[in-house]
Amino acid sequence: MNIYTMENKGRQYFFDGDRLLFNISNKVINDVFDLLNEGKQKEEIFEKLQHKHSAEDLKEAFGAIKDYLNTESSTIGINYDVDINEWKKKKRMQHLWLNISNDCNLRCIYCYGSGGNYGRVRSVMTQETAKKCIDYWYSNLDEDTKDSYVCFFGGEPFINKKIFIYCINYINDLLKDRDINVHYMVTTNGTILDEDYKKIIKENDFAITISMDGGKEITKINRPQINGESSYYKIKENLPGFLEAAGSVTARVTLTGNNVDKLNEIIEELTDLGFTSVHYELASVESEELSVTEEKLKKLFAEIDKAANVTYEAIHGRGNRVLDNLTNMITCLHNRSIGGNCSFYADNVLMFGSEGQIFKCHRLSVHDEYIFGDVDNGVDVPRYLNLEKKKNLTNCSKCIAKKICNGGCAHINLTYNGSTTDTYEPYCENIRYLLKSALKMYSNLQIENS
Questions:
Q1: Which of 107, 192, 281, 294 has the fewest CB atoms in 10 Å of its CB?
Q2: Is the N-terminal amide bond of 155 cis, ω within 30° of 0?
Q3: What mean pLDDT do residues 189-195 have?
Q4: Cα 366 to the chain's mean position, in Å?
């Protein structure tokens, strides 16, 4: 049992982390759930609560809980236990990630990719390699799939303009007679943009994410160009063009130990620049100064509380500052869809490096043991499908957020604990706090609409 109970505006609720269900409750049921979570037995619970609730109410609460637990429930998400025959029968593969540039024009202070080359030779993907990668993905594509997400990343993908455009045109041509919706995405540092890029972004309805950590001061420190100059002014110059082409642009912020107490200042600065939403992730770096430790989380939690308020106002049209960590969680709660579908554990994604290597995680591509084949020899399917599964992750079984974050980040776990399956507690605490904030926001929306 994995239940979180809460009260908001005089109403009782419980959230079932195992089923991704958020329910209206009452005080008796919630008190019983709290003790069940502690491992207490029925007799102990009656004894502890007999002075607070009547025997009849307690009996009724146990009956309601029993009925609830006996009700079948399903969530929307990825099934990680895949039979190898599903792959062979082309009943699994959907999505494609292409690292078209193993190089970058920035030198961010916390970069997990060693300045964009992931500890390897700086290179860009050739047309020959790009075609092979796309062909291999297409040859394994699920014959029944209706949606495919195609993500471009690096390094900085916009360094390799010719191949960026080639890949899109080639994929569109391959799929022109298939009933498949292709959803293009790119994460860029925002320093490179011209009319060709704007045209293809607009024509293909790209989702654009620009990595940027805040205003002038933070950007100068965190995200310098190779020559040491700040990347701030180039991004500021290009952002209107990205917005014109894509309609909306998300800022992807890396929070370090030095700026966790500035989250709302960052949201304000980026929104004022023109970003339509802000998303943050915690830095994954060995530096103690840049790491977000448990002690530094206290400052972040205070910032999340403020961000929840301004995001709630934006939902109601009373502002424009949006922290999409929260709105994404609300969407997961409303749709009961499993979140955090990380490619490291998913079996329906192919991720290619710039030289055609096949990875499970772009962050872990620096490690040879996380290469699972290459475009010329194909994927090592047994290893690819049987990689350390979610069920082996420590500390997840009793976490209320386990289906929201879906096991977290393997790279963060490896960086701080030396194992992809040994979860990093500050990361987990951050996700749980975001979830509790999202639950409060979601309950407020329910109250307003009741």
A1: 294
A2: yes
A3: 98
A4: 20
